[in-house]
Amino acid sequence: MFKNSANTVIRNYAKTSIKVSKKLGILGVPFSKGQGKTGVDLAPDFLRENGLLTMLNKCNVSISDYGNLKLETHVTSEDNSPYKRIKNYAEFMACNKALIPRISEVLNENDMFLILGGDHSIGFGSVAGHLLHTPNLSLVWVDAHADLNLHSTSYSGNIHGMPVSLLLKELRKYWLQADLYQFAPKCLPADQLVYIGLRDIDPFEDYILNKLNIKAFSMDAIDRFGISKIMEMSLDALKPYNKIHLSFDIDALDMYVAPSTGTPVRGGLTLTEGLYITDALRVTGRLQGIDVAEFNPALGTGDDLESTLNATMRIIRKACADREGKLTGIKENVINLSKELNEK
């Protein structure tokens, strides 16, 4: 049935004439209040301490590290929030309002950008900022979860399960009290969104995925067709001249590959599949923005942390670099952090 699919894949995105971006801007967003577990805010600095910049420099990527986004420590009381069911709404808005203009600043000086989360609620500000700079944008959301709930449909009230609904043109009318047009006026049309790796979806999210005819490839689909065919179909669904934003939640990977994350789900992507996704997007020459979210260095054993760190670093390397760079010093740093956390 798919005997010619390899040729189709090559035609779509494996073009030898592509010039890979060399200038990469990195910004950490150590935000953790979109969910309930502490430690995810440690990830940006932990990745740096474990040789992220050195690794990318060895891959022939010119790095500009902008440090971490400065987060407000004093925000409006939750009593004034228009959405009472959302936890830490004011903090979420303060973080993302600060993040949105920074994306254009980084892109004005670089070919592409990498956002180091933080929980996945920062995907709203990252993509919204990207849309301001590059309106002709497509979004690939790699995640075990759809993150598509509204303020009125979320069971938990955790806003890391809602960022995509804030971005979609078709759902903006349900967020009128957020005044999104004041600071995030550009919306993403539903036909330029592709999900990969879904396996834990709430009923409302399932309804919206079908109602808006959003391209959503579950793990069942990946197991059935294979990741090569899934990427072929994903790229066929996106406008061929749009830039691409990849938002990668580490929990998209199987929990045995990346256990140090806040909401792990069994039956996820293998590391090979995760790397294939990022590489397929990179070689289009259109990948311009990348988020990596939900890596939590405070969760799991030392072995869990080492496995998740290795997977996260390899995903970043594959997305940003056109050749391999070595990962060094990971084992020692993981052991040291595990000792520190156990002493607390």
From TrEMBL:
CDD domains: Arginase (cd09989). The keyword Metal-binding applies. Its cofactor is Mn(2+). It is an enzyme of class 3 (hydrolase). It holds the Pfam family Arginase. Gene3D superfamilies: Ureohydrolase domain. GO terms for biological process: arginine metabolic process; urea cycle. It comes from the Eukaryota. Pathway: Nitrogen metabolism; urea cycle; L-ornithine and urea from L-arginine: step 1/1. Mn(2+) binds at H120, D143, H145, D147, D249, D251. It catalyses: L-arginine + H2O = urea + L-ornithine. Keywords: Arginine metabolism, Hydrolase, Manganese, Metal-binding, Urea cycle. Coiled coil: none annotated. Its EC number is 3.5.3.1. One of its GO terms (cellular component) is nucleus. Belongs to the arginase family. PANTHER family: ARGINASE. This is Arginase.
